[in-house]
Amino acid sequence: MDNNKATLELGTKPVGSLLLQYAMPAIIAMTASSLYNMVDSIFIGQGVGPMAISGLALTFPFMNLSAAFGAAVGVGASTCISVKLGQRDYGTAQNILGNTVTLNLIVGVLFSVVSLLFLDPILYFFGASEQTIPYARDYMVVILLGNVFSHMYFGMNAVLRAAGKPRQAMYATMFTVVMNTILDPVFIYLLDMGIRGAAFATILSQMMALTWQMKLFSDKDELLHLRRGIYRINAAIVRNIIAIGMSPFLMNVCACVVVIFINKGLLMYGGDLAVGAYGIANRVAFVFVMIVMGINQGMQPIAGYNYGARQTERLMRVLKLSMMAATVITTSGFLVAEFVPELCVSLFTSDPELTGMAARGMRIIMCTFPIIGFQMVATNFFQSIGKAGVSIFLSLSRQMLFLLPMLIVLPLRFGIDGVWASMPVADTISSLVTLGIMLRYTRRMSDLKNQ
Asked: Where is this chain primarily localised (predicted)?
């Protein structure tokens, strides 16, 4: 099937099979991506030690912050491309591709330079102690030196999905997982590089995948391809990319702030091991979250195209199917966390104190998982159709309006359990808010369709 036909089928093929076609590669890719993160944690925990796990957990805010800038470009650009393809404005879509490359280069380099200049103060602010900062520093120096390649890799994968190539995006992600799994033991054990080895494995695997992505985009027979004249920054295109990308950007910045509060609270009430326990519990929860993100990524080009083409019935159909699938996934995560948490934790560590702490934390933070699937889909849906304001509000409400106050108030009364409980309490409130906004929007769309 040629690329034009693959793009046009977004508005003609049955929505259920289309969502399966686009979501399945994304789900596989996102599951692989979550396993990619778990592999690092498992090798670090088993090969370096419990304190290294805590040091790695301290880098989560850094990762959220880096992801924020990457999402502002990658998600914003991919949504803009999907809408333009739906409108059959192929020239603008081509220029968006070129601007995406330029923005990723600029953002990736600036983020690395600023972060490396102030690395130690930032890590202490994130909750590092004298015991954990050597591990966090060793890991982040390598990651930041290769940050521009990471930004470009994630950005190009988002554009691949928007351009009707979900399988290629999946292959790129799976390749990084396989290479990371191969390189981790080589660098950590054989070359005795410790936690730095895990960072080198991560960057090298992404660089190799990026090389393949750029080769795909160099094919002149493709509808979207790299060519001269598309890289110069266009103010209107950049404004549109940033406007739509602002929602995931703010969501990741808020996640950075929230994780800082979580780490500081856990450090205060449970010590360095509690920070490591959160790192483990978060990795397990992340597997299910990433699967839902895969569903969202499969939905995004379909929703964006049909919104641009004004096909309301298909738009609402893909929303409903995505919400149903996401709820099944998050409910599965709930069952795993409540019934076999110790089995999950044993993959990362054999330390009994860390195991008990992580298993308890996992049970608490994932106890409301069945209700958050639809909330994640709804937030992404508004982003996919260019409703940046609604998406930003839904992103911010969970993190800043609900979770942050809970992290301040609940630990004063319940100690470390209060830190853990803050997350499901905030998830419950934000899901109710999302439900109200979603019902209002669907009623409005139904009224428009019936007029």
From this structure: membrane
CB-based contact 77:159 (threshold 8 Å)? yes
- Closest by CA position to 157, among listed 180, 142, 141, 177: 177
Burial (Cβ within 10 Å: 0-12, 13-18, ≥19) of residue 451: exposed
Is the confidence at residue 115, as pLDDT, over 50?
Answer: yes
Residues 6+ apart with CB under 8 A from 211: none
CB 33 within 8 Å of CB 290: yes
The CB-based long-range contact list for 347-353 (8 Å cut-off, 24+ gap) reads 347/38, 347/42, 348/41, 348/42, 348/45, 348/46, 348/53, 348/280, 348/283, 349/45, 349/46, 349/50, 349/53, 349/276, 349/280, 350/46, 351/50, 351/273, 353/273
The four Cα atoms 300, 172, 107, 141 give a dihedral, to 10 degrees, of 130
Residue 38's Cα: distance from chain center in Å?
Answer: 14
> Smallest Cα–Cα separation from 60: which of 281, 213, 208, 223?
281
- The Cα–Cα gap between 349 and 347 comes to 6
Over range 377-391, report the average pLDDT.
80
The residues spanned by each domain of the chain are: 21-450
The two tokens of residue 321 are 């199917």
Roughly how many angstroms between the first and final C-alpha of the chain, as a whole number?
Answer: 37
**Model confidence band, residue 255 (pLDDT cutoffs 50, 70, 90):** confident
Size of the chain in residues: 451
